[in-house]
Amino acid sequence: MDISKGDILVMKKKHPCGDNKMLVLRSGMDFKLRCNGCGREFMIPRSKAEKNVKTVIKEAES
Fold this sequence. Notes:
The protein is mainly beta. It has one domain: SH3 type barrels.
């Protein structure tokens, strides 16, 4: 899966704040994501993130 910095991930499950869109701040073996709803930043392993992604909105499209 081709995910890079600046992309927005639409996740299958919602964050506890109610939003399911996450901004990619860093990618590598794990991702650093920021919730678009509440602004919380968190790290998640690449394998778990790729399994829970519904769609990817590329940086250039938005």
